[in-house]
Amino acid sequence: MTTELHTSPYTSEAAPRVDQPKHAALSASLLDWYARERRTLPWRERRDPYSIWVSEIMLQQTQVATVIGYYERWMQRFPTLERLADAPIEEVLLAWEGLGYYSRARNLRSAAQKVVASHGGQLPRSIEELRTLPGIGAYSAGAIASIAFDADEPAVDGNIVRVLTRLFALGGDPKRAPLRERLWQLARALIPKGRARDFNQALMELGATCCSPRSPRCAQCPVQKHCLALARDRVADFPEAAPRPKITDQSRAAAVVRRGGRVLVVRAGATAPRWAGMWQFPDTQLATGDDPSEVLRRSVEQSTGVVVDALDCVGNLRHQVTRFRIAIDIYAGRARSGRARPIEYAEVRWSDPELLGTLAMPAAHRKIARSLV
Ligand code: SF4
């Protein structure tokens, strides 16, 4: 899993001198191990910058095992950057459906359009230009520059933070200065000249397969003799644990409104704070003491113009999005009157339940849609 933890890639001028033989030996051991043990992954079979960029964005906040299928389907559907730039946003969101963090998909498409408009369809090579593209932060820029263009640039993701803080027994909050800067400087200084492509991937691979968060396999680690945390028997102390985000409970109600054989679905606008551009059943947040069916019935009418007979609770589901633990009660009812129109949404539609599979939906609403067919 990778996360955009960092905001500034430090320049080579700022890098500390770590050219001592032991650091060179550490890097060499890691590269040898990577050459022997690296996993075969579909994006490692390709060298074109577009496919590397797509894989890096998908791998943010998502496990490799999950990404593989999505990546292969994506590359079949959008084999080139131009094809992605031309694709309707709905098609892009549908291809991304289930991966979550949908801003990544919207940013990929926006960035592809910008590359076509301003860079002749070629992903730029420099860190500075890469970082002007939507969704590309310091980590992604470093990963693309090193893996796609062989530039000796570091790329510090969550895996590399874990490996480096353990190898060098570095305390402090890795998301903040001064440790954040120190990690980028170390990652840069450890790159053997001309080898950033393999070296960055080797560090990530070590973090993903050997130096895992809870049960690192130190006995099999290719750099164990260099590891200060292991030598001090303090592996569990690094990296410093981030404070857990406070989980907020939220109650919502969603309406399955039928007219004839169709159901009412709505699409959030491109700038909506939640699920922008995606389809869902009309829903509303509930406050303590609300009568859910009445609040929902009023919400459907205010947001779509459709007047609904009484709504009956037919089920519920729970899911978690970032720091929200959401309970959704599902209500069903029939439309009595009113023409469906997009009062508070970008679009409303009466859809055949069989066709809901062609609309991009967030996971919770996809579950409701599946229950209808
Ligand atoms: Fe991680 Fe253990 Fe290797 Fe140190 S020895 S880098 S803690 S796997």
Please characterize this protein's 3D structure.
- With 373 residues, the protein is α+β, with helices and mostly antiparallel strands.
- It has two domains: 236 residues, Endonuclease III, domain 1; 125 residues, Alpha-Beta Complex (Nucleoside Triphosphate Pyrophosphohydrolase), CATH 3.90.79.
- It is built from 14 helices and eight strands.
- Strands 1, 2, 3, 4, 5, 6, 7 and 8 form an eight-stranded mixed sheet that branches.
- Helix 1 crosses helix 11, helix 2 packs across helix 3 and helix 9 crosses helix 11.
- The two termini are 34 Å apart.
- It binds iron/sulfur cluster (SF4).
Low-confidence spans: pLDDT under 50, at least 5 residues?
1-17
Average pLDDT metric: 93
Looking at CATH, which topology of the largest domain would you report? Answer: Endonuclease III, domain 1
What's the name of the CATH homologous superfamily of the largest domain? Answer: Hypothetical protein, domain 2
The description of the largest β-sheet is: 8 strands, mixed
Spatial extent as radius of gyration: 24 Å
What structural class results from the helix and strand content?
alpha+beta
Q: How many strand segments?
A: 8
- The geometry reads as elongated
Identify the quaternary structure here: single chain
Q: Which molecules other than protein and nucleic acid are bound?
A: iron/sulfur cluster
Question: How large is the count of helical segments?
Answer: 14
CATH architecture of the largest domain: Orthogonal Bundle
User: How many domains, in number, for the residues?
Assistant: 2
Instruction: Report the portion of residues in β strands.
Output: 5-15%
Helix content: 25-40%
The CATH class label of the largest domain is Mainly Alpha
Give the termini distance in whole angstroms: 34 Å
Order of helices and strands: HHHHHHHHHHHHEEEEHEEEEH
